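Worked example 3. Consider a protein that binds iron/sulfur cluster.
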Amino acid sequence: MTVHPEKNQQVARRRRGATIAEEDYEDIASLAEARAAVQGCRRCPLYKDATQAVFGEGPERAEVMFVGEQPGDREDLAGRPFVGPAGRVLDEAVEKVGIDRARVYVTNAVKHFKFTPRGKRRLHQRPDAGEIQACKFWLNLEVGFVRPRVIVALGATAAQSLLGKGVTIGRLRGTPMTLADGTTLFVTNHPSYLLRIRDPEARALEQAKFEADLAMVRDAVASPAGRRH
Ligand code: SF4
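Given these inputs, the predicted complex is written out as structure tokens:
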């Protein structure tokens, strides 16, 4: 990535929350700079109503990157990904299958919360293809800097972002894919899907399938082949 002399000035401007010009993007030289810059993003309209952009979190050289859809209500307020109920489901499943959470980077395909106001509540709205494509810029930066060995797309939006096309989760889950840069990609449901299942038996079944998918991720990370760091 190109680094220009005026870089520090541009980064300082972003930290003050100023809008950044399109040409500034190529000057982002680290994950920390990307995290600061995303607050000035105007690549799609979603910045207008959200509290803030929510960037990913985790080690700069994580082996596993989980990619969700977008921040939810709590994440939007907290400015952190996966801190709501779906994040708890993910954390519990990760711990249960034996993936070291401290070595995991979590983020979303879309960095601003898309919602419809309903009284005092803000109801989640799925991002459209244009918003997913616009925000792919930030996900690409995260993948480029973190260089995870394995990426896990949680749900259809994340899979669409990473694969560049709409996909059906049921058709892709359980089979690892290789992205153009050599990263292994797994696709599974978003943990919020599990929370929406009312029937306890059906939920237990889906929970078991989710954990089985994560167990495959654990095994892929443990495998000595293709280590990138
Ligand atoms: S959702 Fe993504 S592309 Fe759209 S304004 Fe926010 S950070 Fe930029």
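Take a moment to read the result before moving on. The chain has one domain: 41-222. Residues 38, 41-44, 46-47, 53, 110-112, 131, 134-135, 138 surround iron/sulfur cluster (CB under 6 Å).
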